[in-house]
Amino acid sequence: MALLFLLSVQVSAQSKKKASKSKKAQTAVAQSKAVVMPNGVSYEIFTPNASEKIKMNDVITFNFIQKTDKDSVLFNSFEAGRPVTIAVDSSRNIADLMYFFPLMGEKDSALVKIPADSLFKDGQMERPSFFPAGSSLQFVIRVDKVQSMEQAMAERQKMMDAQAKTADSLKVNEVSILEAFVSKNQLKMMSTPSGLRYTVLRPTTKVRPVAGDTVYVNYIGRTLSGKLFDSSIEAEAKKGGLEQPGRNYEPISFVVGEGEVIPGWDEGLLLLNEGSKARFLIPSSLAYGPRGAGQDIAPFSTLDFEVELIKVVPVKKTVQAPKKAPAVRKPSAPKLKAPIKSTPAKKTTTATKKK
């Protein structure tokens, strides 16, 4: 919520829209009395329901309008169609409203006013001109759903399972469409373990790129339905009715094998020689996957490319100077100690007695 507040203020500084209060909200404000909390925040609950109050760790989904006290709207999730889903936690700042949610229940709506002075104190944040001293940041909130953490996790898992089931179905469908396409066009293509299918239309014996080389490539990209979605060749683009304003029609260059293009291109171009032409059928797992790309490439789409490898510029390899052999130091003559003088042993004489 605090982050959303910051973004909203930045957007509003550029363009502010006037919001009109609904008659229901105006009547509710007139009939209710604001309550001031210890932190200076005031609130009015418009539609108190008998539902259980929000608890710590509950997951809530709510819509809100964020505005100034002059009714200039900063953000409106109702209009944006993006309700917020968060887990209620301990409050970390006055703008996160975590201290307020436990006062509400499911289907409740309320107006919350946060003193602007508390948001911009100590110069921690630049103060916009539309939040003068004494003004307030206001939230009109409607709680749409309250779930326990277990319920929210179970619901999310159910949604993920449904998405996975749909994805599996689309993958199966992609394979069947590809097989039908290959059969209909009587294509004889080689396959790699990753699923890339390719055929070399014009082979050469020139240099073959390795990962790290820079390549220059001309290409034509189509969906299996025949829709031209991209080309570096102007004549082909015009023939296919493809409009690419400002496009420079020339071979594109990139470092192959470094992830600068879709994986199918990185893999396929390493199979070609400079000057060769080829056709790639690239499955979605090596292209744009479950997300697709733009309006023309749907999720789980196999793509049909004609490519020409115009030029290969080998990566400059750094040649390391040979290591010098370690210098052999001439052994110095050993230092001899001064000879030790030996003292001759004294002979023991035995006196001979005269007989």
Overview of the structural elements:
Mean pLDDT is about 85; it is low at about 1-30 and about 335-355. With about 350 residues, the protein is α+β, with helices and mostly antiparallel strands. The strands form two sheets. Strands 1, 2, 3, 4, 5, 6, 7 and 8 form an eight-stranded antiparallel β-sheet that branches. Strands 9, 10, 11, 12, 13, 14 and 15 form a seven-stranded antiparallel β-sheet that branches. It has helices at about 1-15, 25-30, 75-80, 115-120, 150-185, 235-240, 265-270, and strands spanning about 15-20, 35, 40-45, 60-70, 70-75, 85, 110-115, 135-145, 190, 195-200, 215-225, 230, 250-255, 275-280, 305-315. It is elongated and about 85 Å long. It contains seven helices and 15 strands. It has two domains: about 1-10 and about 20-150, Chitinase A, domain 3 (Roll); about 185-315, Chitinase A, domain 3 (Roll), CATH 3.10.50.40. The N and C termini lie far apart (about 130 Å).
